[in-house]
């Protein structure tokens, strides 16, 4: 199967297509739909391809005891974890409003379905693709149900092993060939020594028929650019309006200027990657004509002389002469004319047969 897939209507990923950039809003909207809309607009203005949220149906994601657990950290929006999550969770109607706003702004809209009921709702919304968060990647019943819906899938791989990712690949592939994996480490913020970008290459070798990408929680843009250089076809970064806001994800997020810079640098890096074929570029011709070296006569060479290494040297010459990388081809050949000391040796000056 081809390495490229259509992730969203009119937008291919993989192959030579531009990297698909996801601005992960998650729950950095602080439970405020107006902030959510501002972040969607920020994502669009920065040049991201998609604004993404996280959708949970809390009674399906957590059991009662988990929802009743006291939650009194500095990031809490309620006395219990359930109160905290309900404060941050948008309703179905609010999601429809955000989807419509994204359409008006002109950016793809989707969300991570954090449980099977949330995936069903996102399917009803007809999001362009499903995002599987790392917490559900080893949830194979969830993976199978999501794959059967037939939409493209992006699967993060934080907290997982390669063996688990092989199981995920086989589960999805049975029902759906439109998916990709993201290398991810689930720590917020993420330290460089825990990023493990080389897993991108491991995935490329292990799963050569799907695009591979990167979901990052580190500070700054450098590591994400490294992922692009290694061939990431999708990148996902959390965004915020202020890293000091209450919430565990803000510190690992990009502020608007950082997101804009990341997108700019990704597009520059993509332009620089080229096709892998090493040859002289058109832009190098001027430098080559001015400074490129040629074979020249190290001393006067009579017509009909047999060329030896002592008779030849290499200099910047005018006019251009025989290319120095092929100088060994001249040894043992005879000249067709006399060549004065310091003159360029040209191909027509030598019997090459």
At a glance:
With 353 residues, the chain is α/β, with parallel strands linked by helices.
Give the SSE layout.
Layout (H helix, E strand, L loop, with lengths): L4 E4 L2 E3 L6 E7 L6 H14 L3 E6 L2 H4 L2 H5 L12 H8 L3 H14 L2 E6 L2 H10 L4 E3 L7 H9 L4 E4 L5 H12 L5 E6 L14 H8 L5 E5 L5 H8 L4 E5 L17 H18 L11 H7 L1 E5 L14 E5 L17 E2 L14 E2 L2
Helix pairs in contact: 1-5, 1-11, 7-8, 10-11
Features:
Type Iii Antifreeze Protein Isoform Hplc 12, 33% helix, 2 domains, eight-stranded parallel beta sheet, alpha/beta, 18% strand, 353 residues, TIM Barrel
* CATH first level of the largest domain: Alpha Beta
CATH topology category name of the largest domain: TIM Barrel
The structural domain count equals 2
SS class? alpha/beta
Order of helices and strands: EEEHEHHHHEHEHEHEHEHEHHEEEE
Question: Runs with pLDDT <50, length 5+?
Answer: none
Bulk shape: elongated
Oligomer: single chain
Mean pLDDT: 96
CATH architecture of the largest domain, by name, is Alpha-Beta Barrel
Largest sheet: 8 strands, parallel
Tell me how many strands there are. 14
Q: How many distinct helices? A: 12
**CATH superfamily grouping of the largest domain:** Aldolase class I
Q: How large, in whole angstroms, is the Cα Rg?
A: 29 Å
Q: Which percent bin holds the helix content?
A: 25-40%
Order of strands, main sheet, comes to 5-4-3-10-9-8-7-6
Strand content range? 15-25%
Q: If you had to describe this structure to a student in words, what would you say it looks like?
A:
With 353 residues, this protein is an alpha/beta fold. It has two domains: 11-273, Alpha-Beta Barrel (TIM Barrel); 282-351, Alpha-Beta Complex (Type Iii Antifreeze Protein Isoform Hplc 12), CATH 3.90.1210. The protein is built from twelve helices and 14 strands. It has helices at residues 33-46, 58-61, 64-68, 81-88, 92-105, 116-125, 140-148, 162-173, 199-206, 222-229, 256-273, 285-291, and strands spanning 5-8, 11-13, 20-26, 50-55, 108-113, 130-132, 153-156, 179-184, 212-216, 234-238, 293-297, 312-316, 334-335, 350-351. The protein has an eight-stranded parallel sheet with strand order 5-4-3-10-9-8-7-6. It has a two-stranded antiparallel ribbon with strand order 1-2. Helix 9 (199-206) links the parallel strand 8 and strand 9 (212-216). Helix 1 (33-46) runs parallel beside helix 11 (256-273) and helix 7 (140-148) packs parallel to helix 8 (162-173). The model has no long low-confidence stretch (mean pLDDT 96).
């Amino acid at each position: 199967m081809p390495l490229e897939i259509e992730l969203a209507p009119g937008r291919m990923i993989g192959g030579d297509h531009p990297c698909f950039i996801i601005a992960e809003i998650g729950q950095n909207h602080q439970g405020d739909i107006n902030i959510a809309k501002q972040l969607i607009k920020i994502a669009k203005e920065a040049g991201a391809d998609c604004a993404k949220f996280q959708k949970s149906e809390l009674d399906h994601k957590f059991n009662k005891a988990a929802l009743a657990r006291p939650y009194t950290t500095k990031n809490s929006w309620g006395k219990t974890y359930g109160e905290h999550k309900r404060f941050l969770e948008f309703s179905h109607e609010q999601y429809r409003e955000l989807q419509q706003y994204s359409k008006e702004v002109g950016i793809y809209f989707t969300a991570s379905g954090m449980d099977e009921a949330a995936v069903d709702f996102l399917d009803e919304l007809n999001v362009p693709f499903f995002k599987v968060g790392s917490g559900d990647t080893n949830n194979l019943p969830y993976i199978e149900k999501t794959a059967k819906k037939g939409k493209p899938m992006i699967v993060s791989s934080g907290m997982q092993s390669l063996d688990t990712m092989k199981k995920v690949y086989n589960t999805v592939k049975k029902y759906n060939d439109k998916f990709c994996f993201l290398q991810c480490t689930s720590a917020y913020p993420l330290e460089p020594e825990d990023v493990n970008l080389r897993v991108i290459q491991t995935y490329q070798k292990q799963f050569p028929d799907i695009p591979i990408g990167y979901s990052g929680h580190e500070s700054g843009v450098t590591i994400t650019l490294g992922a692009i250089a290694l061939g990431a076809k999708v990148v996902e970064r959390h965004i915020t309006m202020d890293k000091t806001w209450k919430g565990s994800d803000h510190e690992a997020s990009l502020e608007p200027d950082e997101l804009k810079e990341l997108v700019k640098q990704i597009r520059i890096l993509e332009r620089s990657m080229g096709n892998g074929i090493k040859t002289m570029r058109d832009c190098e011709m001027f430098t080559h004509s001015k400074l490129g070296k040629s074979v020249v006569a190290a001393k006067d060479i009579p017509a009909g002389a047999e060329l030896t290494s002592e008779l030849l040297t290499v200099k910047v010459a005018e006019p251009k002469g025989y290319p120095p990388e092929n100088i060994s081809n001249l040894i043992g050949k005879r000249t067709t004319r006399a060549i004065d000391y310091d003159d360029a040796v040209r191909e027509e000056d030598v019997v090459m047969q």
